[in-house]
């Protein structure tokens, strides 16, 4: 398997060094560059690779459990407007009482289609469909035995079309998502037998459809410097994008409706030529989400800039 | 383990690859106010540029193009584009640019500068 990986990436490098062609970038709408956000999904169809997304937060499960996840995601364009995405995480659960467990999450597969773009108004809208493939992850870390489908709509809007009177607001932009996670199993029944009495207990866990919604509000120093006012800011400040992400989940059905859970994540992204690094605090919105501030950090590569002639370009359709 | 395999390839790639061309600096500066009419607009990008398929235009406040349409690449710096200007009167001018970097990534943008006396 290691040799296959090595061969794959070497092949990409060879293609990179030899093929004359053309590619179009991701995360742009007109003059606006949008970075890849860490918690919420963005609307861009892209060739990108998150080598590592590391997060940690204490959840209320079992009286308090530290949930640490190390994830990796890759997105590759099929056409200039359509991509396919894969993601996987390694999860470490460390309860305050009891033994720590670890294992892989379910494999996630997704696809996105960008159906609207306005360069003038720095706007992009996409439709996406994702699936967590049931049974591909570890039961010990809570990976479901059933699949969950998640159609959604994604948007991005830069504020560069604001009037010049408020030009210092132009570097603001917002991206967001709205979708529904639909489990393929409405409930799970767990039967336990009391060893002493022989009685059977049946526990039924409901799996509601969940509204997944969130957005990221960001301020691009890159945009400020190149489009609004050169403030002569030095590196690395001139490539920073401070942002706040809001990632929420609201159960929609099946039993008493639970509360909305989610986090508010203030942080910062530094975007370079070929990659970005980002870090955010993860602040639970209520006790149902958690009681402690966590963190998330990510190293993310722009494959279209690294390999514009091989894996960093659409498989079909080539140019935009 | 996969990361260990990938990183050297990325590093090798970085040695020669180009990326999206961002505006690095401009003269007159982005959003600047200047006292005298500039003889040209210079924009330096973060990547080398293909001048044949790139453009810079300068417009006055009425939307009339005022540049001399002689866009050219700097002889010693292939990330630096020049376009000449006639003497400009007092007012606000808009510079729009669209460039293709040598690896064919396309980027665009615009900014203004102001001439005062």
Describe this entry's structure for a reader.
The complex is a heterodimer of chains A (320) and B (117). Chain A has 320 residues and is mainly beta. Chain A is 9% helix and 50% strand. Chain A is built from three helices and 17 strands. In chain A, the strands form three sheets. Chain A has a twelve-stranded antiparallel β-barrel. A two-stranded antiparallel sheet of chain A has the order 1-2. A two-stranded antiparallel ribbon of chain A has the order 11-12. Chain A is elongated. By secondary structure, chain B is mainly beta. Chain B has one helix and eight strands. In chain B, the strands form two sheets. Chain B has a four-stranded antiparallel β-sheet, with no helix packed on it. Chain B has a four-stranded mixed β-sheet with strand order 2-8-7-4, with no helix packed on it. In chain B, β7 and β8 form a beta hairpin. The N terminus of chain B is likely disordered. The interface between A and B is large, with 41 and 35 residues.
Q: Can you list the strand order of the major beta sheet of chain B?
A: 1-3-6-5
SS-based structural class of chain B? mainly beta
Averaging pLDDT over every residue of chain A, what do you get?
89
Largest interface: A-B, 41 and 35 residues
Q: Level of helix content of chain B?
A: 10-25%
Shape, per Cα inertia axes of chain B: elongated
Number of strands of chain A: 17
Helical stretch tally of chain A: 3
Number of helices of chain B: 1
Biggest β-sheet: strands ordered side by side in the sheet of chain A: 3-4-5-7-8-9-10-13-14-15-16-17
Largest sheet of chain A: 12 strands, antiparallel, barrel
- Name the beta content range of chain B: 35-45%
- Which structural category do the helix and sheet elements of chain A fall into? mainly beta
Counted beta strands of chain B: 8
Question: How big is the Rg of chain A?
Answer: 22 Å
Q: How much strand content do the residues of chain A show?
A: over 45%
**Alpha-carbon distance between the two ends of chain A:** 35 Å
Note the run of SSEs of chain A as H and E.
Answer: HEEEEEEEEEEEEEHEEEEH
**pLDDT < 50 runs, ≥5 residues of chain A:** 1-25
Task: Provide the low-confidence segments of chain B as ranges.
Answer: 1-5, 11-15
The best one-word shape of chain A is elongated
């Amino acid at each position: 398997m290691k040799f296959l990986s090595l061969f794959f990436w070497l092949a990409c490098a060879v293609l990179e060094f030899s093929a004359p062609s053309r590619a179009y970038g991701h995360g742009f709408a007109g003059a606006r560059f949008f970075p890849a956000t860490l918690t919420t999904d963005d609307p861009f169809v892209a060739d990108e690779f998150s080598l590592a997304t590391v997060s940690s937060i204490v959840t209320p499960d079992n009286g308090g459990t530290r949930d640490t996840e190390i994830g990796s995601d890759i997105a590759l364009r099929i056409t200039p407007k359509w991509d396919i995405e894969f993601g996987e995480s390694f999860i470490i659960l460390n309860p305050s009482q009891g033994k720590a467990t670890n294992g892989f999450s379910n494999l996630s597969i997704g696809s996105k289609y960008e159906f609207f773009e306005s360069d003038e108004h720095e706007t992009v809208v996409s439709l996406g469909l994702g699936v967590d493939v049931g049974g591909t992850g570890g039961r010990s870390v809570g990976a479901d035995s059933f699949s969950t489908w998640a159609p959604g709509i994604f948007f991005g809007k830069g504020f560069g079309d604001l009037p010049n009177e408020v030009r210092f607001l132009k570097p603001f932009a917002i991206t967001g998502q709205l979708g529904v996670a639909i489990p393929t199993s409405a409930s799970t029944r767990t039967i336990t037998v009391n060893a002493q009495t022989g009685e059977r207990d049946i526990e039924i866990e409901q799996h509601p459809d969940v509204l997944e919604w969130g957005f990221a509000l960001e301020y691009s120093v890159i945009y400020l410097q190149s489009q609004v006012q050169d403030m002569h800011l030095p590196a690395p400040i001139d490539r920073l994008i401070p942002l706040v992400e809001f990632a929420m989940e609201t159960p929609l059905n099946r039993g008493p409706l639970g509360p909305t859970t989610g986090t508010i994540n203030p942080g910062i992204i530094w975007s370079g030529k070929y990659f970005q690094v980002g870090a955010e605090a993860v602040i639970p919105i209520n006790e149902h989400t958690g009681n402690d501030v966590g963190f998330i950090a990510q190293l993310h590569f722009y494959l279209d800039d690294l390999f514009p002639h091989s894996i960093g370009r659409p498989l079909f359709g080539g140019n935009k | 383990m996969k990361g260990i395999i990938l990183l050297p390839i990325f590093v090798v790639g970085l040695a020669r690859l180009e990326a999206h061309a961002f505006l690095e600096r401009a003269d007159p500066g982005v959003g600047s106010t200047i006292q005298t009419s500039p003889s040209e607009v210079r924009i330096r990008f973060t990547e080398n540029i293909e001048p044949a398929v790139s453009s810079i235009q300068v417009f006055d406040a009425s939307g009339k193009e005022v540049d001399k349409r002689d866009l050219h690449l700097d002889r010693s710096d292939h990330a630096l584009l020049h376009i000449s200007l006639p003497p400009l009167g007092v007012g606000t001018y808009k510079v729009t640019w669209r460039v293709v970097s040598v690896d064919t990534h396309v980027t665009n943008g615009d900014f203004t500068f102001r001439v005062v006396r």
